[in-house]
Amino acid sequence: MKKVERIGVNVAGYVDDRTGAAKWLRKNLTKVFPDHWSFMLGEIVLYSFIILLLSGTFLTFWFDPSQREVVYDGSYEPLQDIKMSAAYASALHISFDVRGGLLMRQIHHWAALIFMAGMIAHLMRVFFTGAFRKPREANWLIGVGLVTLGIVEGFLGYSLPDDLLSGTGIRIAEAIIQALPVVGSYLAFFAFGGAFPGEAFIPRIFTVHVLLLPAIFLALITIHLMLVWYQKHTQYPGPGRTEKNVVGYPLMPIYMAKAGGFFFIVFGVTAFLGAVASINPIWLYGPYNPGQVTAGSQPDFYMGWLDGLVRMAPPLETAAFGYTISWNILIPGLIIPGILFTLMALYPFIESWMTGDKREHHLLERPRNNPNRTAIGAMSLSFILVVLINGGNDLIATHFSLTINQIMWFTRIGVIVIPPMVFVITKRICLSLQRADREKVLHGRETGRLVMLPHGEFVEVHEELSAAEKFTLTQHEQPMALQVPNSDANGVLNPQGLKGKLRARLSQAHVEQVSAPSASEAKELESGHH
Amino acid sequence: MSDEFNQIAKFEDPGLPEHVHRKTDTDPKAADLAERQVAILFILSALGTVLAIYAYIFIKDDVFFFIPIMGDTNAHQLFLGLGMAISLLFIGLGLVHWAKMLMPDTEVIAKRHEFRSPDEDRADFHQTIKEQAAAAGLGRRSLIKRTLGLALGFSALTPLVLLRDLGPLPGKDLEKTSWKRGTRLVTDPGDRPIRPEDLEIGAVAQVLPELEPGSTRHLSDIAKDAVLLIRLRPSEFQLDAERLSWTYDGIIAFSKICSHMGCAVALYEQQTKHLLCPCHQSTFDVTRAAKVIFGPSARPLPQLSITVDADGYLVAQNPFNEPVGPSYWERPS
Ligand code: HEM
Ligand code: FES
Description:
The complex is a heterodimer of chains A (530) and B (333).
Chain A: H1 3-19, H2 22-29, E1 32-33, H3 40-60, E2 69-71, E3 83-85, H4 86-97, H5 101-128, H6 137-159, H7 164-179, H8 184-192, H9 201-231, E4 245-250, H10 251-276, H11 301-312, E5 318-320, E6 323-325, H12 327-355, H13 371-391, H14 393-399, H15 404-443, E7 445-452, E8 458-463, H16 467-474, H17 497-510, H18 519-529
Antiparallel strand pairs in A: 1-4, 2-3, 5-6, 7-8
Helix pairs in contact in A: 3-5, 3-10, 4-5, 5-6, 5-10, 6-9, 6-12, 7-8, 11-12, 11-13, 13-15
Chain B: H1 3-7, H2 23-26, H3 28-58, E1 64-67, E2 71-74, H4 75-102, E3 108-111, H5 119-136, H6 142-155, H7 157-162, E4 185-187, E5 204-209, H8 219-225, E6 227-231, H9 241-245, E7 251-255, E8 267-269, E9 274-276, E10 283-285, E11 291-294, E12 303-304, E13 306-308, E14 314-316
Antiparallel strand pairs in B: 1-2, 4-5, 5-6, 6-7, 7-12, 8-9, 9-10, 10-11, 13-14
Helix pairs in contact in B: 3-4
The structure holds protoporphyrin IX containing FE and FE2/S2 (inorganic) cluster.
FE2/S2 (inorganic) cluster (FES) binds at residues 258, 260-263, 277, 279-280, 282, 295, 297 of chain B.
């Protein structure tokens, strides 16, 4: 035995003596993981979370979460002798007087952006491939929870330095709380310890930002990964891959080495961004003062769509019987986001209700092979994109010499008109891609080579696909619409009533497909040729 | 579900393609080369760490130099960061290269089983649950069930009650500002009282109420008291008689706190005489008592009635006659 082997065996023996876990560990160390670039999106999120924990902890060593008024006397000249909160002064101290402090602040902020962008990309991967289907609905729900909390966590972090920009963000959050019917002003006074801005808010959100939410993230991420482990990863369809197997690389050593390596790559890229790309230069904004504002203020991108919604809201407010309801705040700030996130959370259940499909799924779908779902996803993205454009309307206006008025009306109308259009177009595109697949399987791939037939006509040479390719392009299911009975066993008409009709209609829309060619069809075609 | 289709002959699954050996699997020379490449990547990483430590200790943090696109760049921070990035990135690249080139890359197949347990196990499980429910008497003892529900529900109230002291009740606080009849308008910053002559036509000024002797000004005061003064030609106003009487010699005063969500309404366009809030672009027409002409705000900015005192300084004629800032449920309409 080599020395490494001996040590390994000894450790394994020590552990098994005390846990009896030899069999279980062996099974898990050889666990198989399918490989695909899109499966790395979730990893990016996990790694950036770890980077956030490390860089955030570094920042806490100097950050002073207090709104006590101090006079700045650090090394940044332009703010000398200016009154500000201890929080802002300490964030300046980190930036200018702690070696590596600015680097860490920038790494932390970049990691937060990568964390959010990665989560959204990961979520899209899961959605468009149908990975959320039974038995993985729980992980979808956890994911929606993580995105929601991520938005909150990012907003709180952005608010901590108490500069003019972040204070303006807090002011807007306060106005949303205050707009809640009946309890709004009470909740606002509780949250802020009195009138806005007070001196209680930063210390309070600090605890939430560095303790409460990270702990919840850690718990949710742990459950998320344990479920992935236990339920085994999904895989893309292809030769040799079925609903009953997992094809991939064993955890040890190759998968572990790749994943571990990827952690360092993500960390390295984040450090590189922190080194060269300035982000949130708080010293340029000055301390928060409710009587001032920076022009062209922009939140981070994951808040931008909310800002866009708020900006496009019509000026509606109901004032009656001595009470006021601010629709212009409640609808874009709470009601629409609430509906969007609820629908997103419920989507797996809605889809399985529509299709009546209650089976387990471990093979992913190519987005084109589920045109309805893909169109729903594209439609939702287009909605978010349109409102996000309005969130940056001031920047866009100056860049493209448009007026804010033009952009506002374009997006107000666009947010209603564009998503349905995107739905229809995406569905058409999916169906024509299916048709193209069908062509390829039956008639081969176009090669661009022309040959002349004896009677002078030119035809393009088609190259037959390999058996593997043919299988990959035709293995998907051809679902059929749900049959909702018109009358039940006792002859009672339409037992499910309107709901049943709606369901049948939705299921009809959902199964719209170009039928995949079958082997027999191909054979027939072939015999026809000769 | 798709039985009909599945009866038609599908294209057959040709099975997992044969494993293709890499050069490093068959050629020991290639494998040795790969090993050296991995080693070089790890050494580069170590050099990165050296760079980071060198930058931390030896590069002064007040040295700036110019880099295109990035502009003036702090050398200390740049090289510290680059060193760190290199040290991390090359560990990662080394590991991945090692895995790709030298670790066994045969794809393996593991079985997957349906999660649903066999019917027999499920039936047993259901039986157990029924028995346990029966043992606990949940089905029969409804008194226990209801009172337990009550107790649990009630116990959740304690933490809620404990949060009560997070803050005072709002009371009438949101309705009040520090402006009183006769309060002088003072410049912000500077705290100097203002005479009408100090403002030219077309000029804007931010003002606050003069501090009473011995008192201090908190940010929460500014959040309600900030006021903008704008001077126009009196003929430019389109106001009713009452509102006109709230202006003084072409000078009109509005709350600077946006009636939408409370940002500072900071942009004044001289030509159009519009006030613009940069947060969501609510736009207010100064000549028509800050009527909303664009954007999401539903109300004009509250107007402060002003005049001059015996010494010729601008003062408030009266407090604001409505709450300033964003709306809330109890806001009197
Ligand atoms: C998990 C998701 C997290 C997100 C999305 C996030 C996001 C942010 C953002 C955007 C900022 C503003 C950064 C700036 O430009 O200064 C920030 C600041 C901060 N974060 Fe986090 N953070 C997260 C986790 C953490 C954790 C786990 C800790 C500590 C254990 C932490 C500690 C801090 C501190 C102390 C600041 C203020 C420091 C400063 O402004 O210089 N964060 N965070
Ligand atoms: S806060 Fe002024 S427009 Fe929204």
